Amino acid sequence: MSKKREFISGDEAVAIGVKLSRPHVIAAYPITPQTITVERLSEMVERGELNAEYMHVESEHSAISAAMGASAVGARTFTASSSQGLLYMTEGLHYASGGRFPVVMMNANRSVALPWSIYGDQRDSLSLLDSGWIQVYVEDAQEALDMMIQAFRIAEHPDVLTPMMVNLDGFILTHTYEIVEIPEQSQVDAFLPPFQTPNKMCFDNPKNMGFSSQPNDNTEFKYQQNLAVLNAVKVLEQADTDFAAMFGRKYNGMVDEYQSADAEVLLVTLGSVTGTVRDVVDEMRAEGHKVGVIKIRYMRPFPEEQLQNLTAGAKAIGVLEKDISFGYEGTVYTNVNSALAKVGNTVPKLNFVGGLGGRDVSKADIRNMFLKLQRVAAGEAYKTVDFFNLNVETNE
Amino acid sequence: MKEIRWHGRGGQGGFTVSRLLGIAAAIFEGKHALAFPAFGPERRGAPVLAFTKISDEKIRDRSEIQSCDYVVVMDETLINAGITLRVKPSCTFVVNTTDAARYKELDGFKVVAVDATSLALEVLKRPITNTAMYGALVAASGFVSLESALKSIEHEMKPSLIGPNQEIVRRVYELVKSQAL
């Protein structure tokens, strides 16, 4: 039988991935560029294709609250947001992870105000690394669809029971149409068992849920929460392996890499820009430059060991991110640098910051990064944080 | 990789036709394609851009289109000095106009001129020119076959629109092909 393929957007791919995962409850508030996802899901429910309760709540704060309530009674639960909407959920995000409610969320990565901007960057989700959610970032619409299915399995695993956020770049992925293979429902059902929560809110077996703690036991709860996210490493790697066996697509768990083995200079990336970097790697390799790329897929749990191993032979490393933590450096850079410092990797490490608020990251930009890394590897002086492609003169 | 830029006004179907071409290439010819609008808010009547990338291999490059092979202009009032930016030296412009003589060329670029509006008014009774321009692009470029283009309309449009739009594509395709001879 020929495989079913459709020409759809990233938003639509997410909606189909969620539908195939058979959620019981969807609670969401629309926001650009996530809107098409929740519109499609509401249409699927309306037409009876998806047997779920669609709650069109009055705000994102209510969306995450409703999602937690549904998850507490054992419902498979989905929500979606972006940017200001995601930030409006923030209080609830910590509640959901602390309460161990394995809600799955799609986040359309978008800039945060001010200045007001509907366009893409990764400052929304990266500012929430400490909220206790598992975070994965995808590169194309196929990976977006596939990761929705994997996310429920990872989040709901009894060793994990932690909510999970699947991030895709606003517009670049959410609003771009491409060919996507649609998995068979029967195969998804075999891959993704029904949600069985050990912490069910029910009259037959009453439990204390959403409780308060005292100084003498709070640290123990937080210790367990940390352990749960660390446990996710094995679970997500197994999910990746099983998914590949079932559907024939493998994403390599915590990180992916391209031409990194003998690379003299490396770029570390997050999200859809990775594809453009892969093209530049091919072009520069053809000219004899030993360049490569490492794609971080999971920011939490963080691929510490994988990054330490994959960067061991590089003479200079650049972290390319659509983020800046004002007054310091990009958050991805801070995380990567911390991992490499632990194994005494002291090669020059640069932080390329750009693509903010929807600015294009071109092949020429990426080529310039690799060339700069080569010069730095050869001894040229450098500053850690490099805002590339600035349209203004600086006095630095 | 082939890169196409579509110029239209909000409501004329510019983004739809960028997807139709992507569907023809990806679903019906086994190629890879990306179709996307100029990102941002949508407003009826405002100038809008849409893009299609077509390749035999998986398209990994997510950066903006910088070197178009074809530029399709659905509304000639959108032609200004900037329209020849970000195109290949070999780029062809496909322009909707009642006055073909006016566009023998555009700043030295080759032009294919068709009166899409009259045909749309005749067949659809509305000045929606996206499928007429689709037929012209397919005939001029050969990026997909006429058959795939017709199938993409059947795949994407609602039943009442399939017949008339397929008729438009077929007629413009034959017109442009005959002009080339």
Protein architecture, described:
The complex is a heterodimer of chains A (396) and B (181). Chain A is of the alpha/beta class. Chain A has two domains: 5-247, 3-Layer(aba) Sandwich (Rossmann fold); 255-387, Rossmann fold (3-Layer(aba) Sandwich), CATH 3.40.50.920. Chain A is 39% helix and 18% strand. A seven-stranded mixed beta sheet of chain A has the order 3-2-4-5-7-6-12, with helices on both faces. In chain A, strand 6 (134-137), helix 7 (141-156) and strand 7 (164-169) form a beta-alpha-beta unit. The longest helix of chain A is centred in the middle third of the chain and has 30 residues, at 218-247. Chain B has 181 residues and is of the alpha/beta class. Chain B has one domain (2-180): Pyruvate-ferredoxin oxidoreductase, PFOR, domain III (Pyruvate-ferredoxin Oxidoreductase, domain 3), CATH 3.40.920.10. In chain B, 36% of the residues lie in helices and 26% in strands. Chain B has five helices and seven strands, in the order E-H-E-E-E-E-E-E-H-H-H-H. Chain B has a seven-stranded mixed beta sheet, covered by helices on one side. In chain B, strand 6 and strand 7 form a beta hairpin. In chain B, helix 2 (116-123) runs antiparallel to helix 5 (159-180), helix 3 (130-141) crosses helix 5 and helix 4 (146-156) runs antiparallel to helix 5 (159-180). The longest helix of chain B is centred in the last third of the chain and has 22 residues, at 159-180. The relative contact order of chain B is 0.18. Chains A and B meet through strand 1, strand 8 and helix 10 of A and helix 1 and strand 2 of B.
